[in-house]
Structure formats: C-alpha cells, structure tokens
Amino acid sequence: MRRSASSNKTNHFFSLMKKRYALGNDIAKETFDFCLLNDKKVCLWRGQFANNQAGFKELLEGLKARGFKLKQIHFALEATGVYGRALVAALHSAGLAVSVLNPAQVKFFGASHNWRTKNDRADAELIALYCLERQPVATRPLRLVEEQLKMLVHEREARANEQTRERNRCQIDQAQPCRLPPTLLRQRRQRLEQLKTQIDQLDSAIKALLLSDTHLAQQAKLLCTIPGIALCTAAKVLAQLAGKEFCSARQLAAYAGLTPSERRSGKTLYAKTRLSKIGNRFLRKALYMPAATARRWCQPIAKWADSLQDRHLQPLAIRGAVMRKLLHIIFGVLKNQQPFNPNLAAGTTKLLTQLIAP
Predict the structure, then answer these.
(1) pLDDT at 346
(2) CATH for 5-134, among 3.30.420.40, 3.20.10.10, 3.40.50.720, 3.40.50.620?
(3) Residue spans of the chain under pLDDT 70
(4) What is residue 36's predicted lDDT score, i.e. its pLDDT?
(5) Residue 206 C-alpha from the chain's centroid
(6) How far is residue 96's CA from residue 90's CA, in Å, rounded to a whole number?
(7) What are the domain boundaries of the chain?
(8) Prediction pTM value
(9) Given this model, what pLDDT does residue 355 score?
(10) Which residues pair with 271 in a beta bridge?
(11) CA nearest 283: which of 250, 312, 316, 324?
(12) For residues 355 and 40, what is the distance between their CA atoms, to the nearest angstrom?
C-alpha cells in the first residue's frame, strides 16, 4: 500500500537505526509496569508509572536522566484494547519505535522459555525479552483520518450487532403464544428505528470521511471495483490495514487467519484441514458476505469455486477459500494501484487451488 512521505521516512528510520535496548510495558487500567533490557538481556531499569500523560513523561525523562538514547530503544507492549492506546500515541508523537504485540505470541514465547511467574512485573520483562529476540516490526503512527475511520467502522459494527440482536428478539417474541405488553412492544420498535437511524448516520459519516482524504478515497475506489466489495466493506478493510504493511498476499492472508491449518503426523490425519482463524477476526467477518456475492457474480471466482465443489469440499470450506482469494485480490489491487482485472484474477486460481487441501 502507498504511504505518505512522512510515514515512509519514519519507517525507514526505524529500519536503519539499530536498537540496543528493548523496553517492555505491561499495561493495566491505571498503571503500567516496564522493564528495560540491553542486548545482553540484562535488566537495566524497571518500575511502574501511572497510565496517563504524566506517567509517560516520567518514563521518558527517567530514561534520559539515566543516559539512555531514546532512539536506541525499541518499545513494546501487548494489544490490550483501549488501555494501551495513549502510550502508543505518546511514543509515536515522540518519534520512537513501538511495536504492539499479539498477546498469544508473547504467552507461548514465555512457555517456550519455561516462564513460570505471571504478574505485571514479570510480564513486562517477558515482553522486553520477546522484543529483543524476535525483533517485531515497529508500527506506523496512524494519521488522524485513519484513526477516525477505525473508530467509525468499529462503532458501526457494534450498532449492526445490536440491531441483529434486537431483530432476533422480535422474532422470538412473535413466536410466543402470549402477546407482548404494549409498552415493551413500543420500546422494541423504537429501539430498532433508533439503531437504523444511527447506522445510516454512521454510513454517511464514513463515506464523507473517505471522500475527504485523497489517498483513502482512491483506495476505496479501487476496492469497490472488486465484485462483492462495496463502500462499507472497503472502509472496513482500509480501517484494519491502516498503519500496517505486508510483503505478500500470503502474509496478509495469515494476518486475517485465512490460511489453512493441517494436523497430520506421518500417515495419520488428526483432523480435516480448515482455516487457522489465528488472526484478525474483524477482517474475516468483513469478507464473509462479500465472498458469497463474489462467487455468484464474478465469473473467474465462480468457476474456481465450482471446481472446489467438484472436489467435494464443504460449502463453508469453499466460502473460506473464496474469502482468501478476495484478500489476495485486495492485496494486488492496493499494491499495484490498479482496478480489478478479471483476467488476472483467473490467472491466480491455480496457485490458490494448490493451497486448499483436497
């Protein structure tokens, strides 16, 4: 994906500057524990500060007072929802390298090292050790428009889920022999109308935000050339890919959890090959319904999906394969900055077919 000049310079700086230290942060609601390790895995400083701007300032000033160069430190923390966002933003604004880690990877990394202690202090040291050994890629700071897009998209998804739950409750109520009290029935209808209005308002806000930014507008326009992907899905995809860079379509598929997972030892097959689902659940969900539309209306994808059906794959397995194919197409469209080409899509089916277990 094309990035702005400022973000290119930032990531280029991160890649050239050798990091001598790793600072792991274990985030809680009100505080965060930290541990600074050097390249010999020796702890140089550890402690705890408040999880607010004053605490972040104390951390950076304390590092400077001890003679450490901030540009030589790789900061790392686990993805902990909203609690870690302020620290990430503060580090990004200071131009420092920070990586947001998958908690599952850190957990199993600790198990591989026979890490027996589980508390905030020990977790901070484990995160720093993981950062030293695995050298995760530093994330790019999101632009304001990208942050707003992520918030709008996730809020719309929350409202859509609430709308689905309310509709399901109405269907259950209609199936009951006794009729609902008028007050409850009126509230249910008002709630559905309110949710519909809010979703429409969020859709309008998302569209306006995309059109307000030249880069995002161009990306969304390209994605909408892919069969099955409309503006809403394009916004979801762009929100999830913001601040990230992938070297290949396979890497992107792995990030979304759309790679096949096989359990076999020798001649023994322990389970059918299925999607790993180790990845971004939101992105998988966003592609679920577009995959059905693409299979119906895109001739190359439909022909390829029919060939998978002839190999006796189950419908859900075929849906997952089409989702992965859509993600490959998304990667190609965004990387090459070219609209969807059905002829090129037909040419990639052979490789993808080899990745699907018989």
Answers:
(1) 62
(2) 3.30.420.40
(3) 1-18, 177, 268-271, 345-358
(4) 97
(5) 18
(6) 9
(7) 5-134, 144-212, 238-262+272-355
(8) 0.76
(9) 43
(10) 263
(11) 324
(12) 41
User: Which amino acid is located at 114 in the chain?
Assistant: N
| Segment 24-49, tens digit of pLDDT | 999 999 999 999 999 999 999 999 99
CB 356 within 8 Å of CB 321:
yes
Q: Which residues 6+ apart lie within 8 Å of 253 measured at CB?
A: 259, 324, 327, 328
Residue with tokens 């580090």: 91
Three-state secondary structure readout of the chain: CCCCHHHHHHHHHHHHCCCCEEEEEEECCCEEEEEEEECCCCEEEEEEEECCHHHHHHHHHHHHHCCCCHHHEEEEEECCHHHHHHHHHHHHHCCCEEEEECHHHHHHHHHHCCCCCCCHHHHHHHHHHHHHHHCCCCCCCCCHHHHHHHHHHHHHHHHHHHHHHHHHHHHHHHHCCCCCCHHHHHHHHHHHHHHHHHHHHHHHHHHHHHHHCHHHHHHHHHHCCCCCCCHHHHHHHHHHHCCCCCCCHHHHHHHHCCCEEEEEECCEEEEEEEECCCCCHHHHHHHHHHHHHHHHHCHHHHHHHHHHHHCCCCHHHHHHHHHHHHHHHHHHHHHHCCCCCHHHHHHCHHHHHHHCCC
Q: Is the dihedral of CA 58, 64, 67, 71 positive or negative?
A: positive
Q: Report pLDDT digits (tens) over 204-230.
A: 999 999 999 999 999 999 999 999 999
**Closest of 253, 262, 260 to residue 325, by C-alpha:** 253
What is the crossing angle of helices 315-336 and 281-297, to 10°?
100
Query: What is d(CA 50, CA 48) in angstroms, rounded to the nearest whole number?
Result: 7
Q: Are strands 31-38 and 21-27 parallel, antiparallel or unpaired?
A: antiparallel
Interatomic CA distance for residues 187 and 267, integer angstroms: 60
